[in-house]
Specification:
Pfam families: Peripla_BP_6. This is ABC transporter substrate-binding protein. The chain is an alpha/beta fold and 410 residues long. 41% of the residues lie in helices and 17% in strands. It has 13 helices and 14 strands. The longest helix has 24 residues. The protein is globular, with a radius of gyration of 25 Å. It starts with a helix and ends with a strand.
Length: 410
């Protein structure tokens, strides 16, 4: 082949190669961070894309949820709710024109993993605040580290110890075990019930409930005639239920997260326990109904209003935001959101509201959040220097399982 012919053949090939290289590597790349911080590939739903959406640096926030393990029925909907809201926030311009980027981590429902994850987010990812975790144990470990690092944190865990005593920058969105205990006791007073038995998880969540029940029982004229506990992974609680059956308890209070409460209900029916069962808000989701089946009929539960969104009074201050969240969540995931999804949704809304009031200055976030008043799907939050949960038992409801569904008790 002649030299002139070789040049004619090579030239278009070289141009084509340059075009291919430019398309593959010359443009701006987006980085998706999910779980262990993997990069590249398809962007996760809701993940901020700062390079494409804004020339300003993103505000980096960590989110540690229990995406696997025993607390995954809590953590998965929390993550979904955060992703849904994140997309909305960034489409509306983020915070002062800066997109919010959330880096998700899975604590595998393990306390040690949660602490490892928050340390990684601080040292490697340089986050300015963190959401999580789903469970009380992991959240308590995270809170200790976050407080020492002066890192603002909003937890999705119910244990009162997360925010009591108050620590600078540490907040939470769920109703506490104090709120749940008081709401149940008010119901028992109305029904003239004075003798109770308890069967609570031995983990930090269940232990917190045990402490609050012991603390507030005298105030409400309640006597604890039996007090039992179980391990989170125990397959059966029939021996504890047999002991309780031999007492004169008028009602059984159960505090734990699924699947154990459902197991307790089924075994109680098999043993003909013969007294009502009231479950804590730790099992207030559709998973409980799925696990308990027909045995759940008549079970009572304390919960937030989001558990029965279609039964919330139209004049309720929370009605509008509950409807907005439920409609958006159903459109995105073809499923009803539960209270745990609500904790994540409120957590990110509170964080962003704090950042906006702080003018995007994360160093002021902890101080600013203490002044935030916000009507959320969980309740009406009124944070203060003395209260980093901001809720009361008045925004909790009592429900009963009827025909396989939760029904509001009025």
């Amino acid at each position: 082949m002649k030299k002139s012919q070789i040049k004619k053949w090579l030239y278009p090939l070289a141009v084509a190669s340059l075009v291919m290289l430019s398309a593959c590597g010359g443009g701006a790349q987006t980085t998706g961070t999910n779980g262990g911080g993997s990069t590249g590939g398809e962007q996760p739903a809701g993940q901020a894309q700062p390079a494409a959406e804004s020339s300003k640096e993103p505000i980096k926030v960590g989110a540690i949820f229990s995406l696997t393990g025993a607390n995954s029925p809590l953590g998965v909907p929390e993550k979904q709710a955060v992703e849904l809201l994140l997309k909305e926030i960034n489409e509306a311009g983020g915070v002062d024109g800066r997109p919010v980027e959330i880096i998700f981590e899975d604590d595998k429902s393990d306390n040690t993993e949660a602490v490892k994850a928050i340390k990684k987010l601080v040292s490697k990812d340089k986050i300015v605040a963190v959401l999580g975790s789903s469970g009380s144990g992991p959240s308590l470990g995270m809170a200790e580290f976050a407080a020492a690092e002066k890192l603002p944190m909003i937890s999705m865990a119910a244990a009162d110890q997360v925010t009591n005593p108050v620590r600078a920058g540490i907040f939470k969105t769920p109703h506490t075990d104090v709120h749940g205990t008081k709401r149940i006791f008010k119901y028992l007073q109305e029904k003239g019930i004075t003798k109770i038995a308890t069967l609570n998880d031995s983990n930090p969540y269940g232990s917190g409930w045990t402490q609050q029940i012991q603390k507030y029982a005298p105030e409400y004229g309640i006597t604890i005639v039996a007090e039992e506990k179980y391990g989170t992974k125990d397959p059966s609680m029939s021996s504890q239920l047999t002991k309780i059956k031999g007492t004169d308890a008028q009602v059984l209070i159960v505090a734990g997260t699924n699947p154990a409460p459902a197991t307790i209900v089924k075994e109680a029916k098999q043993l003909n326990l013969g007294i009502p069962i009231i479950s804590s808000h730790g099992s207030a989701n559709s998973k409980f109904l799925e696990l308990v089946g027909d045995s759940g009929e008549g079970v009572l539960m304390v919960a937030g209003k989001l558990l029965v969104p279609d039964q919330v009074d139209a004049n309720d201050p929370q009605a509008a935001i509950i409807k907005k969240f439920v409609d958006g969540y159903k459109a995105a995931y073809n499923a009803e959101p539960d209270g745990f999804a609500g904790y994540g949704y409120d957590g990110l809304n509170l964080l962003v509201e704090g950042l906006k009031q702080a003018g995007g200055d994360a160093s002021k976030l902890g101080e600013v959040l203490e002044k935030v008043n916000y009507v959320g799907v969980t309740g009406e939050f009124k944070f203060s220097a003395e209260d980093h949960n901001g809720l009361t038992e008045d925004s909790m409801i009592m429900v009963e399982v009827k025909d396989g569904k939760f029904q509001l008790l009025k």
